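Reopening closed ticket. The problem is back. First fold of the pair:
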Amino acid sequence: MDVTTTPPVKRVVAGATAAPDGSSSDTSSGGAAARNGGHHHRRSSSLGGENHPFFEYFGWVYHLGVNTIGHEYCHLRFLFIKGKYMEMYKRDPHENPGIKPIRKGVIGHTLMIEEAGRQKVNHGDIYVIRFYNRLDETKKGQIACATAGEARKWMEAFDHAKQQAEYEISRGVSARNKLNMETEIDLEAHRPRVRRYASGLKRLIKIGQGPESLLRQSSDLGGSVGDGYFEGDVGDAVEAHQWKCVRTVNGVRIFEDVSDSKSGRGRGVLVKSVGVVDASSDTVFEVILNLDRHRRYEWDMLTGDLELVDSYDGHYDVVHGTYDPKYLTRWQSKRDFVFSRQWFCGQDGTYTILQIPAIHKKRPPRNGYRRTKISPSTWEVRSLNMPMGSSGAKCLVTQMLEIHSSGWCRWKKNSSSKFEKTIHYALLSQVSSLKEYIGANPALKVESSTMVVQSKHSNASSSSGDYEDIDVQDQFYDAIAAASSSSEDEDSDDDGELDKKDMKVKLKNVSWAITSLALKRTSGQDANKELDSSVAPITIDPSQFHGSMQQERDGIDSNCWSSPSGKGFMIRGKTYLKDNAKIIGGDPLLKLIAVDWLKADKAADRISLHPKCLVQSDAGKKLPFILVFNLQVPAKPNYNLVLYYACSRPVNKDSLLGKFVDGTDAYRDSRFKLIPSIVEGYWMVKRAVGTKACLLGKAVTCRYLRQDNFLEIDVDIGSSSVARSVIGLVLGYVTSLVVDLGILIEAKEEGELPEYVLGTVQLNCIRLDSAVALEVVQGSA
C-alpha cells in the first residue's frame, strides 16, 4: 500500500489586538506571511473572539479503526478543523462542493493527544496519533500520517483546536454550558448499525480494491515553522559536558568531552560529530530511520545492510545488520551485529534516536559471521531558525558515541593514525555522509516552509457563525474511532461558502491567549509577590515532617533527597518574548519538606487523602499551602515519587501561582512545567532524558485535586508511550543516577516575566527495593 498523505494546510482568520501604543497589531502568523509577500486579511471571528486568531486546518490523513465485523482498516480521509470543530470527509470538499461530512464533532478541552510512533501497514510505515478523553479513556481513536513531520503538524492543529475550546470556557458561564451540552452527546448513538452489515461489507471490499489509492496525493511535508518556535541549542538545565573541537572532516566538526566529570563512561571517551544539513529535521529523521538497503547504500558505509527483527510500541525496534570489514581493515571475515533503536520527538521538535547493542532470540550468532557489538550511540536532529526571507530549511545533526579505543588520542595528534580504519570513525563519519547524500538529492530538500500553498479564508458572512448554531450530533472521539463504512452515516451539515485566495502562510506555534483575562502587570514577575505579604510568615519546622525517603545529611548519602538552589536551571527572562533570552534561576519559592517513595499494585492517585499522609497530619493542616507533586512511575510494581512543597504564607490569589492553584485543569495543563537534568549517570540516559523544559499537561495525563490547604498534581507517566519508554531506560540505571528536577509555572505574558523556580529536588541513587508499600485509598474530592 502506498502510504503517502499530505500534511495539514493551515489558514488563519485573525483578530486585531491593541499594541502598547494604542495601535493595532497582528497577532497571527499571517503577519509573517504578509511580510513574505503573501496576502493577509485580518478580521474578527465570532468564534475566536475579538482578540483571538481563528485557525483552520485541512488535509489528508489515514483513519485507523475496527469495522463492524472486527477487522482493522486504514482508510484515507480528508480532515477539516475549524476552530474547535472537526469534520471528516471521504473526498476533498474544496474540489467537491456540496459534499457532506461523514463525521463531525467537537474537539473538547479534555482531549489528550499522544504520538503513538511508527506502525507498519501493508508494507508501508505510517506515524500514528492517538486521541483519548482524559476523563474517560474509553473514548479514543487513531489517525495516521505518512511522515513524522506531518504527524507533528497535525498534533499542533488539534492542540490549537483544543485551546480554542479552553478559551471559550474562560469566556464565561454561557460558553461553558454550551460546551458541556456538546460534550454530553451520546457517543454510542451513531455507531454503525447491525442492519447495515451487508451493504457495509460490500463497500469495504470495494474501497480496498482501489478508490483510496486514486485519492492519494504526494506529500509536501506541510506548513513551515515560525521564528522563535525552537528555543535554541542550549537546554533548560546546566549540563556538565565541555566539548572541544578536535578535528574537522568534510565540513563536519568532531568534538571530545574534556570535562572533569567522567561519571557514566568508565574508561571510555565521549565524542560527537556535528554538522548542518540543508533539509528539515523531519526529512533527516526519516532518512536515518529508513532501513531501505538501496537508500542506505548511498550514505551509510557501515550499517547499510539492516533488517527489522522486531518492533514494539511504535518508538522502539530491534534491527540486525551485517558489514564487510574489508572497507575498514585487512580482515576478511564478515561481521554482524544486533542493536535496538529507541526514538522520540521532544516538545521543541527535536528528534532523538538512541542506539544500544542488543541480544535477540530471533538473531542468534550465525555461521560465517563474527558477532560484533556496535558502540552505543545517539542521534539528535534539531531544526535551525532561519532568517526572515531565507529559502530552504536547515537542521543541526549530532551523533554522539562512547569510544573505548586507545587509538583515539593518537588520532587527534596524527592524521595518519589507524583510527580512521575503525568502526568508531565510520560511525562518526555518518554525519558527513548524510550531509552529502541529502545535498546530492534535491528532492529531499524541497520543503513547504518556503512553498506557496493554496490557502482559503472563510467568507465573513458565513464563517464561524454557522458553526456556533450547529446542532453537533457527533463527538470528536466518535468521529475518529467509529467505522464509516456506510453512506447512511453521512450526517448532513451546512458548509459556509469559501472564497479562494492565494497567500503564503507561515506556520507559527502561536501561544494562545487563553489566560489573557488574567491581571496585567506593568512590572516584572516578583516571586515574593506570589505570597500574601499582609500575613505574617510561619516557621516551618522540617523535623515535624517525615517521608519514606530520607533527606541527605552529610553529602555522601545515597537513596536520599536534597533541595538544591535553582541555579542549575535556565528560566525565561524579562525580555524572553522579544529575544528568547533565558536567565539562571534563583532560590525556589516553595520549600521541599518531605519525599515519599512508594509502591503499589496500581497507580495511586489522591495521595493527599491517605490518612497517613503528612498533609493530613496536625502539622500539615497548619501550613498555609502545600503543593503535592505525585509522579506515577509505571513498572512492576508501580512506583510513586511524591514531593511535598510548602510555603510560609498564604498564596496571593491574584498572583500567577494563585491563578494556577485555583484555576481550571486546562489552565494548569498549559502552564505546569518540569525541567529534568541528570547530574551524574550514564551518558546515554542523559541524552534520553535531556534538559529541555516539558509542559507536563501536554505530554502526559495530569489529574488535579484541590482541597483545603493543598493542591495535588498526579502525573501519569504511563499515559504516554514515549514517556514509558524513557522511564524504562532510566529505571535500569536509577541506582547510579543523581537527578535534578525543577518545577515552575510557565510565564506566557510580559507581565508574568521573568519566571521563577517554584520548587526543586535532587534524587541521589534511588533504590527500587526501598519503596514503601502503600494501601491505595480512593478518597472523594
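Second fold of the pair, where the issue appears:
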Amino acid sequence: MTSFRLAITELRRLTSGKLPKLALIAVTLVPLLYGAMYIYANWDPYGRLESVPAAVVIDDTGAARDDGTRLTAGQDVYHELLDSKSFDWQLTGEKQAADGVSSGRYTFALVVPKDFSAALVSPGDFEPRQAKLRLITNDANNYLAGTIADKVASEVRSGVAKNAGSEAAQQFLLGFSTVHDKTQEAADGAGQLADGAGKLHGGLGEARQGTAQLSSGAHQLLDGQRELVNGSARLTDGTGQLSNGADQVHNGLQQLRQQTAQLPQQTAQLADGAEKVAQGNEQLASRAEVLGNVSQQLADNLDQTKQRIADQLRSTGVDEETVQKVVDGLDKLNSPVTDANGKVQTQVGQLRMLADGAKQVADGNRKLAQATPTMTGAIGQLADGSGQVADGAHQVDDGAKQLRDGQQQAFGGTKQLAGGADQLAGGARQLHDGSGQLADGSHTLADELGKGVNDIPNPDAKTRDATADTIGDPVAVDTKAQVKAGTYGAGLAPFFMGLALWIGGFVLFLLMRPLSSRALAAGVAPWRVAIGGWLPAAIVGLVQAVLLYLVVVFAVGVRPANPALTIGFLILTSFAFTAVVHALNAAFGPKGKFIALVILVLQLVTAGGTFPWQTIPEPLHPLHQVLPLSYVVSGLRHLLYGGPGLESAAGAAGVLLCYLVAGLLLSTIAAWRQRVWTPSRLKPELSL
C-alpha cells in the first residue's frame, strides 16, 4: 500500500457523506476566515480615524504682539485640527469634554487653555513660559486611541512650536535689518559730523589766527602804553620843577619875563602833545573795544558752535549721554576762551576810563595854552600873584601825578589785556587742536561704521522668510523607505497569513487521522504510513494557502512584489505547518493537539508580527529564533514588500524545509513505534 493510496483513502473517508464534506470545507476555509478577515478588518484603521469622536476645547483668549497685531493661536490650532481630519473633532467646553471622555462619548479631549497665546508671546517680554496643551484620555475607551491622541498632541505641539519659532526668528532677522539700516544712518551721520568738524576745525584755525593777531596787537598796545607812562613820569617831573620854579618866580620875574616869551608857544605845544596823548589813548581804547568785540563775538560763536555740534549729533541719532559728554568736553575747551574774554572786557573798560581821563587832561592843557598869553601879558600881575602861581603849579603837579597814576593803572590794565590775549590765543590753539581731533575721530567713526554695516546681516524678505522657517523648524526628516507596506493591514498581513496557515493545519487534524491504523496493522512501511497520513492534510493545506492568497490579493488588496514566490512560499509554509502538527498528533496523540495549541500561543508572542521581536522579554528571545512562524513572517515581508533581502526569504524557506523534513521524520518514528499495540492505545485515557 503506497502513501498516495493511504492519502486517497483518508480523503474518501472525509468526503463519504454530506456532513463530512461540509466539515472539510469548513476547516479548509478557517485560515481564510482568520487571515483574510483579520487583514480586511485592520486594513487601514488610521485612515478611518476621522469617524472617531474627539473633543477639542478652545479657551484661548489671544494675545497682542509687539507690532500691534493679535495672535490667536488657539483658533489656529482648531482650524489645523479640522483641516487634518485626523478625528471627528467636536468643539465643546472643558467640563463637557471631561464628562464626555468619562462616559465614552468622546475617545479623548484636547484642551487649549486661556493663556496659550499669551505664553507664546511671553519671550518677547523677557518673561518666558511654556504654552501648554492639556490632553484628557481614558484608556477604558481605547488604549490605542489614547496612544494616537498622544501622537496628535505631539504633532500639534510641534506645529505650534514651529510657527512660534518661525515668527520669533522673523522678528529677530527683521531686527538685524533694522540695525543694519540704523547703522547705515549712523555712518552717514558720522560722515556729516566729520564734515562739520572739519569746517569747525577750519573756522577755529581762522579764529586762532585772529586771536594771535589780537595778542600781537595787545603787546603793541602794551609797548605804546609803556612809552605813555614814561612820558607821564617826565610830565610829572616837569610839573614838579614848575612848582619849584613858581616859588622862584617872584625873585626872578624879569628873568621869567624873558624866559616866558616863548611860553605861549610851549604851552600850545604842550596842549598839542596832551591832545595827541588823548588821541592815542582814544585810539588805544577804540582798538581795545574792537578787540573786546572780537573777543565777545568769539565767545558767542563758541556757544553757538557748541549748540550746533550738539544739534548735529542729536540729528544723527547719537544718544543724549554721548551728546552731553561732547558738550561737556567743548565747555572745558571753551573755558579758557571765556575766562580770557572776561578779562579782555575788564581791560577794555579800564582803557576807556584812561582815554576819557587823557581827554580831560588834553582839554586842560588846551585851556592852559589859551590862558598862557594872558598869563604872559599879566606877568607883572603874576609877580604880585606869584604865590597864587605857585599854588597853581602845585595843582598842575598834582594833576600830572594823577595823570601819571592813571597812566600807570592803564599800563597795568593793558598788561592784563595782553596776558588775557595770550590766554585767548592759547585757548583758541587748544580749541583748534581739539576740533582737529574731533574731525579725525569723526572720520574714524564714519569709516568704522561703514565697515561694520557690511557685517550686519540684511536679508531680503524672501531670504528672511526662508531663514525664519529653517530656524523655526531646523530639522526635517527625509524618510527613504527601501520597501513600504502601504497600509496597516498590509503591514500585518505576513503575521496574520502565517497564523492562519498554522490554525488551518491545526483544525485539519480535528477531522483527519494522523496515521492509518489499518496500514499499521498490515505492516506497511512506517515512512509510507507517515507520508500517507500527512498527504491529505498537505493537499487541503495547499488549497487553504491558494485560497488565502487569492482572497488577500484580489479581494482585500494586498499587492505582493513577488506573486509567484509569495504563493510558493505560502504553500511551503502550509506543508511545513501541517507536517509539524501531523507529527505532534502522530507522536503524542490527543496531547499533540494541546502541544500544537501551546506552540501557537508561543508563536503569537514571539514571532514579532506586530512590534519588533527585540521588544519581547529577553527570556523569550530563544523561542523567536527557534519557532517557525518567526521565519514565515520574515520571509513573507520580503516577498510581499519587495526590495533587497530575497536571500532572507530563501533562508526562511530553508528553515521551513527543515521543519517539513523534521515533521515527516517524527511522524515516521511515531508510525514505527505504533506498529506494536499497547493497552494505552487500545483504551486511551483521553480522547479528543
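Update: turned out to be a display glitch only; the data is intact. The CA atoms of residues 517 and 675 lie 9 Å apart. Confidence is low (pLDDT under 50) at residues 171-176, 475-479. Please close again.
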